[in-house]
Amino acid sequence: MIIVKSPLRISFFGGSTDYESFYKKHGSFIIGTTIDKYIWLSARYRPKILPKEHFIGYSKAEVVSSINDIQNPLIRETLRHHGVRTPIDFTSLADVPSRTGLGGSSSFCVGMVHLMKKLDGKPVNKKDIAKTAIHIERNILKDSGGIQDQIWAAYGGLNTITIKKNGDFAVKALPVSEKFKRELEDSIVLIYTNDQRDQDAIARSHEKKDKKKILELAHRAYKAFLREDIEEIGSLMLEAWEEKRKISRIISTKKIDEMAEKVMGIGAYGVKLLGSGGCGFLMALFSPAGKKKIQKEFKEDILEFRFENRGTEVVYPVNSDV
Which fold has domain 178-306? Predict the structure, then answer.
């Protein structure tokens, strides 16, 4: 039995510039971090004495004789990609609901890739895991979306991601002080909108749109991070969110707009909706005093978290490599 956990992420700047239709022309620059909320996956090849079937457990349970009969496309195609023939037991758990804008589906895929490589005793590294997950989601499954989520889940950390026009990418730690990291972490509030929508339709709405302003704001925000100026980061985050809302009318909703307006009225430095849009978590930056007010107002819907910097990792057996 092998157990792998892969983190979820919050993206500060540059989201939607990681779509192939954009970065192939302009490149991409993204600032974000992973958090201590995870997708947990476990698997083993079945002992020979058990029935020669595959047990697949996620939000539902499947027992099938062939990998090709698995109904969940992501699980089916990842197992097929790794050439699984031996009967397997596979289960999954998540720390947050699905379709909440935290990159859960890509964390799931990254975790599966990592899990299968470890189960087969193959060497692994973070870049290979990310690239394989990107290939499965974007080329095999043909799901709409970018490539940042797979990179965040594989690498972990408070980083920048630079994507070249040829699709190659580089991950670098954001060069800020440990003191500022704690201040930034403490300033963030994640508020659940309690909505879920068709994320693939929303992701498709991002294709072939002009996002050069979003890319420009990401570069401006990087300088604000270097100055360790949370108020300026919040202001730029709000500007970037307003720019992203122009991509499609389904990026936001009346409910989300009203929540964002209320958050800003309480004193946030800035606010944005995480993910491709339409549902999930609002992220806002606050002063310590402002954070107390927002926690009182939205206490039932706030997700408590801390930053994490390890990325996908094996948690059982203990002391395993990456």
Answer: Alpha-Beta Plaits (3.30.70)
Lookup: tokens for 284: 């806002």
Of 67, 130, 57, whose CA–CA distance to 94 is shortest?
Answer: 57
**Using 50, 70 and 90 to split pLDDT, how confident is the model at 275?**
confident
In this structure, the chain runs to a length of: 322
Per residue in 289-308, pLDDT tens?
Answer: 899 999 998 988 999 999 99
> CATH: 3.40.50.300, 3.30.1120.10, 3.30.230.10, 4.10.320.10. Which one for 2-175+308-316?
3.30.230.10
The model's pTM is 0.94
Is the pLDDT at 45 greater than 60? The verdict is yes
| pLDDT tens for each residue of 95-128 | 999 888 999 999 999 999 999 999 999 999 999 9
